[in-house]
Design a protein that fits this description.
Helix content: 55-70%
Shape: globular
Oligomer: single chain
């Protein structure tokens, strides 16, 4: 009894320290930068409209039906908006919090399978890996679905190790629940990825008896109860017309929610290039090691250590083969897809972290048998090369890199250089624990630079409309139209707290929604916009600085008054406007 209490206290201490340590990194600078276009603006606006309208079943983007993804993540964000209001840190809370939750899941799994040190180190490896941390700071759905897929697979592998009884049943119910929430977050991959990994593992290791019982009579109702109701309600709210071409057609005419959500966004998105996100087959093979930096230098040793004994050891360590199948399946699944974006392979990083954390713990506890020197030397070499490469790349870019970003790049260069020197020093002195501490501090330091640096780089590449929104808000009445000219700037509606009009531009993601409902008062062609502009009502329009003169030249009857401008945007009105010259940037 005393041992059980001591163990529970130890677990609580570990969870508290991991949450505190990762929380300081994950939350401390999350509100420093404005929403990035287009993704963060999109995933801020959809929950804002849910709160404003009270409509929680049918997501809308700028008032247009939006069925690309299911709503669980939107619901989380909307609840936070109701409590805390619109702010960058508010909406970045859930990606960061879910990222920490994923690390705690990995801790619990690593600890149960391989001991306390393996659990702690696996969580740290995951939490400070470049791609995992970076995506925890961005308002997109990939962190959420990755964490729930991780939860499903961790619950499963821990559950099937237990004898039949209460503990096994609860763990497997957690497996079904996490799959359901993953499905409600990003669609069928929430079911398909865990299901395929488990099937392949069971088949290849022939563990049919080991996975029984799966408590299907309890698990299936749990899954259906969570995952299905929204799909039914959305299908009823947006049915296909009697003139639709049929569910299995590629023609979107007359189609409803079921066709767009399942056929267009799940099947055609995977099999075709409809979203124009093409990359070569090997794309994710290059992303994987970069995303695991700085811990990737231990991956070859970790894999060698994990598979010592080869196929003959499969019955003694089935979990290792489970993690291997997890990694390989996710990598190949998305590599064969015709639609590729870097965040897609995030679900494989928890399994990588468990393999690396297991090896680091074994080397820490038994340094004579498992040396970390190879990983330290590899890190030192990579860090030195990166420290040397960054200035060369910056010089080649010329003035494309903002001056404010240069000191931040300097911090990264310094961190890489100093950590590599210390790593070489500790490697020579055979001090593995100190070397790991250096790596942890280096990874944490680079992570802390992420948000300030991203604020500079993203603003340069995908500029924010925040300053224009702050200028406009006190000048607007509820019926003052605001238009986005020749483009749709996704962050403008959430910053303004209202819907906007769009002129002579049809966003791909809104094409289907616009085909189902009329939005003639907000999505206008050029003659309609100019007619409104020449009326008695006051109108504002935001456009890119690069297209302003072109549009004015093509429409000589259009008479705008410049209200505000910078190097990226021009804010215009059909009425003269007095403004503070300090707000007009040259």
């Amino acid at each position: 009894m005393i041992n059980e209490k001591s163990k529970a206290r130890e677990i609580l201490e570990d969870v508290a320290l991991l949450t505190l340590g990762l929380g300081l990194i994950y939350f401390s600078m999350s509100g420093l930068r404005p929403f990035s276009n287009p993704d963060e603006g999109r995933y801020a606006e959809i929950p804002r409209e849910m709160v404003a309208s009270g409509e929680w079943v049918t997501p809308r983007l700028n008032g247009v039906l939006y069925f690309e993804k299911p709503p669980f993540f939107y619901w989380l964000e909307a609840l936070t908006l109701k409590v805390c209001g619109m702010h960058e840190a508010t909406l970045r809370f859930w990606p960061a919090a879910l990222g920490i939750l994923g690390c705690l899941m990995v801790y619990a799994t690593g600890r149960k399978l391989y001991g306390r040190a393996a659990g702690i180190l696996s969580a740290i490896v995951l939490g400070t890996s470049l791609l995992y941390f970076g995506l925890s700071q961005i308002i997109i759905l990939d962190m959420a679905v990755s964490v729930f897929i991780t939860g499903a697979l961790c619950f499963f592998i821990l559950g099937v190790r237990e004898v039949q009884g209460r503990t096994r049943m609860l763990l497997l119910l957690g497996f079904y629940l996490c799959m359901a929430v993953a499905t409600l977050t990003k669609g069928l991959i929430g079911l398909a990825i865990p299901g395929a990994i488990i099937f392949l593992w069971t088949l290849l290791l022939w563990r049919w008896k080991a996975i029984s019982p799966l408590y299907l009579s309890l698990g299936i109702p749990v899954f259906l109860l969570v995952a299905v109701p929204w799909h039914v309600l959305a299908a009823r709210a947006t049915p296909a017309s009697e003139h639709s071409a049929g569910f299995f057609s590629t023609n979107n005419k007359g189609q409803g929610f079921l066709w767009y959500y399942f056929m267009h966004e799940q099947v055609l998105r995977y099999l075709t290039t409809i979203h124009r996100r093409t990359q070569p087959f090997w794309f994710f093979f290059a992303v994987l090691p970069a995303g695991l930096f700085p811990w990737v230098t231990f991956l070859p040793q970790a894999v060698k250590h994990a598979f010592a004994g080869g196929w003959k050891k499969r019955k003694e360590q089935p979990e290792i083969f489970f993690f291997a199948i997890w990694i390989v399946f996710v990598l190949l699944f998305f590599s064969t897809s015709q639609s590729k974006l870097i965040p897609y392979i995030l679900p494989l990083y928890p399994a990588l972290a468990l393999l690396v954390g297991r090896y680091l713990a074994a080397a820490w506890e038994n340094p004579g048998k498992n040396s970390l020197k190879g990983g330290y030397v590899a890190y030192g070499i990579v860090a030195v090369l990166l420290a040397a490469a960054v200035p060369i790349v910056l010089h080649s870019r010329g003035d494309k890199t903002p001056a404010q970003a240069l000191p931040l790049f300097g911090l990264i260069i310094g961190t890489l250089a100093v950590s590599s020197l210390l790593i070489f020093w500790f490697a020579r002195r055979n001090a593995p624990s100190r070397g790991l501490v250096v790596l942890m501090l280096a990874a944490a330091g680079i992570s802390l630079v992420f948000n300030p640096l991203a604020a500079q780089l993203i603003q340069k590449q995908r500029p924010s409309t925040k300053a224009f929104s702050e200028f406009l808000k006190p000048r607007l009445t509820p019926d003052t139209p605001v238009f986005s000219l020749l483009a749709y700037y996704q962050d403008l509606p959430p910053y303004l707290g209202r819907l906007i009009g769009v002129v002579d531009y049809l966003p791909d993601e809104q094409e289907f929604g616009l085909s189902m409902e009329a939005h003639s008062n907000r999505y206008l062609n050029v003659p309609e916009f100019i007619e409104l502009w020449q009326g008695k009502q006051r109108v504002f329009a935001l456009t890119a600085a690069s297209t302003y003169q072109m549009f004015a030249g093509r429409n000589p009857g259009w008479q705008p008054f410049m209200v505000m401008r910078d190097g990226d945007f021009v804010l215009l009105s059909n009425r003269p406007e007095s403004y503070n010259p300090e707000l007009v940037k040259p």
